[in-house]
Amino acid sequence: MPSPVLPRLFATLLLGSLGGLAQAADVTVAYQTTVDPAKVAQAAGRYEQASHASIDWRKFDNGADIIAAVASGDVQIGYLGSSPLAAATTRKVPVQTFLIATQIGAGEALVARQGIDTPQDLIGKKVAVPFVSTGHYSLLAALKAWNIDPAQVQILNLAPPAIIAAWKRGDIDATYVWDPALGVAKETGKVLITSGELAQKGAPTFDAWIVRKDFAEQHPQIVKSFAQVTLDAYADYRKDPQAWLADAHNVNALAKLSGAKAADIPGLLQGNVYPLAAEQKALLGAPSTEALSHTAAFLKEQGKVEAVLPDYAPYVTAQYLPD
After folding, report:
1. How many Å apart are CA 22 and CA 2, to the nearest integer?
2. What is the DSSP letter of 8?
3. Which intervals hold domain Solute-binding protein family 3/N-terminal (predicted)?
4. Averaged confidence pLDDT in the chain
5. Cys-Cys with 141: which of 61, 203, 231, 269 at CB 3.0–4.6 Å?
6. 105 and 122 Cβ atoms separated by less than 8 Å
7. Are the beta carbons of 210 and 107 closer than 8 angstroms?
8. Which residues contact 157 (CB under 8 A, 6 or more apart)?
9. Do 165 and 244 form a contact (C-beta atoms < 8 A)?
10. Sign of the dihedral defined by the CA atoms of residues 79, 243, 280, 291, in that order
11. Pairing relation of β-strands 126-129 and 174-178?
12. How far apart are CA 256 and CA 6, in angstroms?
C-alpha cells in the first residue's frame, strides 16, 4: 500500500511550483501621466507580449507615492523623476535604476498667470507643485537661480489633479508641473522657465524606470524585456519623429494614457530626450550617480533629506540593457 505521505508531498511540491510560476508571471508596474513614446507600446500590450508576464499597470500622480508603493512591495517596477529617486535612494530604499526614461526638457515647466511677467513677480504668490518631485526640485532651483528666497513664495504641496482644479478655480498663481496639468495651465498662463532651460543652468532632471532589487534578481528576463520594449519604442520615434507624429494611432494612444491634448503632444515630445540603447550604457553610470548625488545634496540643503550617501552606484545598473 503506497504511503499517504508521498501524495501529500507531491501535492505540496506541485502547488509550490505553480506558485513560483504565478509569481514569475505577475508584476505590478507604476506609471505616471508623462508624455513619452513608450506609452504607445504600453497601450498595445507589447510589454506583456515580450515578457510573457501578466502586468497590472497602475497610474500614480507623483513619484513620492510610487516610492511608497515600491518600498511596501505592492509595486515591483516604477516610473519616477530624479528628485524622488534621489530621496528614496538616500533613504536606502532597495531599488535600482535600470533605464533612463526621459531627460526632461519642455515636458515640465513653471507656468504663471497673466500679469506675472518676471520671476520677481512670484514673491508673495501661491505656487503649487507636488513636493519631492522633479518639479519641486526644479522650482527650488529656479528660485535659487533668481536669488529668491523660497520663504518669500507660498509654495503649496498639491498633486497634479489638485493643481488642475486649483488652477481652474483661480486658487493658485503659478505651478511647476507636467502634463496634463501643464497643458491646462498653459492655456491661460505664461511659461516662465522650462526644465530644459534649467538644465542649462546646472540643474538637470530626468525620469527613470526603477525596479525592486529582489524582484530583478528573481526575474531578470522580465526586467530585460521591459527595457527592450521601451528602447524599441524610443528608437521607432527617434528614427523619424515627424512620421511618428503623423500617425494618428500613436498620438491618440499617447494622449489617452497621458491625459495631454493631442495638439500638445508634438511640442512635449520634442521638448524631451528619450535615450537609445547606446546612450543608456553611458548614462547608467557616472552621469546618473553624479546627478543623484547633486540632487540629494540640494534636497539636504532644503531639509528634505538628512544626509547624502557617499556613493549612489549601487542604485544604478546597466545590466538589464539589451546585449
Report:
1. 31
2. H
3. 26-241
4. 90
5. 203
6. no
7. no
8. 128, 129, 130, 131
9. no
10. negative
11. parallel
12. 54
User: pLDDT tens, 211-225?
Assistant: 999 999 999 999 999
C-alpha cell at 17: 511550483
Confidence of residue 2 (pLDDT cuts 50, 70, 90): very low
Closest residue by Cα to residue 196 from 268, 256, 255: 268
Residue 165 is placed in which grid cell?
482644479
Which amino acid, one-letter code, is at 57? W
pLDDT in tens, 280-318: 999 999 999 999 999 999 889 888 889 999 999 999 999
Closest C-alpha to 98, from 310, 275, 271, 309: 275
Alpha helices in 93-154 (DSSP H): 134-145
User: Which amino acid makes up residue 200?
Assistant: Q
Look at residue 319 and give its three-state secondary structure. Answer: coil
Are the C-beta atoms of residues 34 and 133 closer than 8 Å to each other? no
What gap in Å lies between CA 107 and CA 32, rounded to an integer?
13
Give the separation between CA 35 and CA 79, rounded to whole angstroms: 12
pLDDT of residue 260: 86
- Look at residue 128 and give its three-state secondary structure: strand
Q: Which three cell numbers stand for residue 259?
A: 491625459
